[in-house]
Amino acid sequence: MPRISLDGAPIEAQAQDTVAAALLRAGVTTFTRSIKYHRPRGPFCFAGSCGQCLMRIDGLPSLPACRVPVAEGMRCERQNGPLGVENDLFRAADFLFPEGLDHHHLLVRSRLLGRVALEIARRLAGLGELPDGVERPAHGELRRVKLAIVGAGPAGLAAARAAGAGALLIEREGRAGGSQLLFGAPVDTEVGRAEMLLDAECVGLYANDTDIPGNALLAVRHRDRLLAVVAEHVVVATGGVSQPLPFPGVDRPGVYAARGLLALGARVGLELAVVGEGEEAKRCAEALSRRGYEIAMIAGVPRRALGNPVKAVDTAGGTRIRCDAVAIAQPPAPLHELASSAGAQAHFDGAGFPVQTDAEGRTSVPWLFAAGTVAGKPAVPSGEAAGSAACR
Prior knowledge:
Distance between the termini: 50 Å
CATH architecture of the largest domain: 3-Layer(bba) Sandwich
């Protein structure tokens, strides 16, 4: 078993762990402190989207611990806790400024004191320090394809099968199937004549203004190399991301996304309070029960969560439920940022911002298509429609 360290203390990990899984298995729940009030923070989504588990790992700052696999001798350090992350004295800001702290208007009647206040605020905030050294240059590669598809969930897989030869399917995980695998649902991972690239994360999508023919340029991080992919058309099938609920204590360590816990290699206790309603809550509760958790369901929005890490939840009806952790089971919100960054229009539908498309998945950007949850549409039919239209 690999051994890592956290702030100099050794921690035993398992071979398939991420840093987050190893730390939670070791009983560590506070991963960092919030930027302004220095409140304790722990992982929530386990998908690299919430920013609550950023750590300095092997000298590199602000890496998402939920996305970094462990390696022998890995050095992990918690950030934004200058006087100690577990007992950060700057947490007193919550009590000194109970109505909130607006540092832009703190001590502004004196120019000198105002500058001092801003400098103190700047030094107490931030997301880590600069890296220890310069990283080795990554190997780069340029590729040209007819169609690039981002995301190998059911929608992306359907798009790849419909597109056929000339399509490149890009998936950041080590296997295809998307979130359906969390629930044990069968997923057809065949892509026909398309090519699939696993462990590959698309970190940028742009209109192509290079001398290389093609409408789009994708920046893809693939293991230890960087790919520049020039494509005629792109289908974004990035799915969705778990969201919290608005109640006091939801941001404390010990409150997790239900889907994140299903993807986690470690268990976070035995008794789990699942918060949510409808089909999503039912599916998550059943899947978590199969993982060995004892489930207490909480319908609606709780009054508050108690403890650090959370050990109890007060319901709206006045009942207090003891638990080892809380799981939020909300339908995932469309992960629209990649498409939006390229200019695609998105609209708020009450639960998130799905990308606007026509019946064949076309967005407001001529070369860009979207399918599945990111477009607020059924996965397989919308994927097939987008893949067919994009390759024509």
